Amino acid sequence: MSGSARASIFTSLLAATAAFAGETTPDPGRVATLRLEAGIAQTPSVYLVLDPPRRVLEIKARGTVLDTIDLRGIEVVTRQPLLAERPTRPVTVPAVWRIVGEPADDHRELIAPVELRPMPKEEEDEESDGAGTTTPAPAGPTPTPTPAPEPEATYRAHLDGGWDLLICEQLPPRGVVERFAAAVRDGWQRLRGEGGDDPPAIALAMAAEDGRRLHHLLRSGTSILVAAGAP
Amino acid sequence: MSVEPDRRELFSALPAPRARRRGLVVVLSLFGLFGLALGAALLVARSGRPQHGAPFVTETALTPDEEDPVRVAKRAAQATTALDRVRPRGNYLVVDSYRNRLRLYEDGALKHEAVCSTGTGTILRDPRNGREWIFDTPIGERVIERKVKNPVWAKPDWAFIEEGYLPPSNPEERFDPYSLGDYALYLGNGYIIHGTLFQTLLGRRVTHGCIRLGDKDLELIYRNVRIGTRVYLY
Questions:
Q1: Residue B193 has pLDDT above 50, yes or no
Q2: What is the CATH number of domain B85-233?
Q3: Quick check: is A143 in a domain?
Q4: Beta bridge partners of B191
């Protein structure tokens, strides 16, 4: 009997036993999520699992949790006039979103020598002389480099399907005064020709440190599985 | 004997009509200015489109077939089996390139954690042709392809260009027997888990994409992983 046939019989028996024993069957939403994950985990890529009920973002590979980020909140963020709020449409889950536009990499440092010169003869001689001794020839950066610039804690990545993913420390304010102040600020920027209309975004609020460490994972093609159902 | 206050004294304590009028004008002016400022703010706010947060509402789109209890249980078992098949077994490594930590796991249980150094994220540009290298530690799953004791580093072009030198035409000039330390675990595409001459820089993003470890940690990792061991980098 083949392995797949045995697996099929096993799962059928398992399902039948569970149904017969009156056990609580798994949440259909969770099972649909599991099935989607089983597909993503066939590739060697790192992927993210957003679990809204648990307010957790997991960094995973091959079905194994590598790290977890606790979320302060999840919201759908849109740009709207102050007095004309439109209801946002619900998000269908489970779903797999893919990053199609990476967040900006402005923090990267560029090393661009103007010209290259030949290796000096003296160094070559010193190296060959020292080859038999314990004098090492250090490679790579100098021992006291300047700290690498950090990425921003608040940024956007574009998702397929028209949504953006907004990583931020704070969700938009809910209070009347704060919202009015935000409207005045945005209106003033627009009057000066600086304002812009961002696409609607799924905002994930998290600690600034978590936002920074997530930045390099949001590369084009990275999958984000949005879980459904109760944990 | 009672002393009655002089009525003229009492009236002189009150502000004169002109002073009262001036005070009234100041108050009304302040109200007017406030009203104007509020009106201007309202006009400006009308043209604004601030970010508005709405609750994250989800809807689960499942077909009746996907909600059938027997099929749900069967599919759950199938998905679990599929995930179990791809999950790492035995020893595997996990590298957190933001926090600069390398962890050794055995069947999901943490066995050892070490401070490491990972890629700077810097971009190097070759002035001759504009070719660029990005010094990132890769992300995703890799396997240990090779294990070498007393490794010799064949320096690639970028190691010379970064120092402002032309890459040598003689391959002999590329060999460096010191920089990689006592052991090297090759991950493919030039990425290596190796030792370092700069132990004080462990825990910082200072490499060209390789993972540097301290001497003791490197020896422990070298002895506990075999060729084919999976490495997860994120």
A1: yes
A2: 2.40.440.10
A3: no
A4: B188
